[in-house]
Amino acid sequence: MSVDITTMKRVATLSRIHVDEAALPALAAEINAILGWIEQLAEVDTTGVLPMAGGGASALRWRADKVTDGAQGDAILANAPDREGAYFGVPKVIE
Amino acid sequence: MRPTDLTLAQARAALDRRALSARELTQAYLDAIAALNPRLNAYITVTGDAALAAADASDARLATGQGGPLEGIPLGIKDLFCTAGTRTTAGSRILGDFVPPYESTITGKLLRDGAVFLGKLNLDEFAMGSSNATSAFGPVENPWSRANDPDTRLVPGGSSGGSAAAVAARMALGATATDTGGSIRQPAAFCGVAGIKPTYGRCSRFGVVAFASSLDQAGPIARDVMDCAILLRSMSGFDPRDSTSVEIPVPDFAAAVGRGVRGMRIGIPREYRMDGMPAEIEALWQQGIAWLRDAGATIVDVSLPHTKYALPTYYIVAPAEASSNLARYDGVRFGARVAGGDLTELYERTRAAGFGAEVQRRIMIGTYVLSAGYYDAYYLKAQQVRALIKRDFDRAWEVCDALLTPATPSAAFGLDEKQNDPVAMYLNDVFTVTANLAGLPGMAVPAGLDAQGLPLGLQVVGKPFDEEGVFAVAGAVERAAGFAAMPGVRA
Question: Are A31 and B374 within 8 A, CB to CB?
Fold first, then answer.
């Protein structure tokens, strides 16, 4: 599998990273070099092998479904690049 | 003897005896930072005034006999750990002005035990790199240099390059670090210091900026094996705020350091003998095997047949998790923002300007391998191979108690070398990445010098939650090696 310019552009969009048109071919070449090296995994027989999803051996712990924290509005907004009162500011979304 | 010559264990004893004050010790390290950081660039942020105030508080507690296990010990903190009120950048422009309102669990535990924080240590951006060259705050220089080529500046390794360089140059008595594919062990080996990545789940990840959540694990870098054991005890322990934190007791790791290896079975994985590996690395490995045999261990040949697939597996799993974790940096809630005409353009411009090239590359690889049509071929396949890599270790533990391997495939390289070939850079982690994929503890110990006078390390890998076994083997290697060389640039 090889990433062409159209796919590269789509991946950049899905990643929400702006890439100049002129930079797409070089980027695709870099990604293809890495993917080409990764392709060697295809030679491993993984028939019937259960995928390993986490880093630990045990199942994830559950916690009680109850509120344990809150009233942290100012701390949460303290690093906002555009704070508008008690809200995060963003460009107008609805026309 | 100057205060910076003491190990952590020695300094803590000197503080208890009141032979040295915490203020004197902290001031000695701040002086070292002032003298050396302009060249080495190990610290992104130095918190000198806060450090001296904390040292004074430590002196007050020591005077009344109430000192904690790390009372008055000056540490550097990798700038991936959130520190309340102190800027935490992750080595990235996108977090260049981020001041966390909360403390990571690990730094909270270190403060609880009396540690003094000197500042925040440089790293590869979002811990993605093996040379500290991807930091938005400039590269870190290794305090060691080649005997026959002293002008070539060498990398400290990465991603915890600032942590390793600062400990080696005596700009910190110990440091926190993190390890996703080798980011504690490879820089420790490159800088001639010790570092341990504990078992996945041993240390809380709460408040540590996430890279790849199923692989990330924090640990210490310190001057020797004992100092690592002391620091790891303070850093470890169950945390309900990390759902992967494991609720088991924290042993006295320091007690294991001198235990010896008599009766232990040490596995030597044959697949770690790589083509093109320098003869000096192979010779050091053989020396390490002889040391352990002489100390009473039984040497066992073992096979980890999927070793060669570990790095390609890692470069699917880690970018996939990173692409998800780094989705939060969107220029809205925190971090840098670049304005855009609409919300999508704001996201895209913010992330293009805020992330460096390697981070962008990994986010896009991760996005690609998780995207519709490719998920099974890449991501699912990698998870299956990861299961096989773990199974290799499970089988090895049937015949041995710990593994001994080289820590890195080479000594430290030049700042200008390997930077243009991502795959060549990734190969730095060939001996370390398997422990992350399998969730195992691994430790790098300085064991010798190459022909250019650069440090080389050996790695000990242990069974899940058997850090004590790792410390026992690492302690035996350390005693046999008698590594006493020091870098040219140091306090």
Answer: no
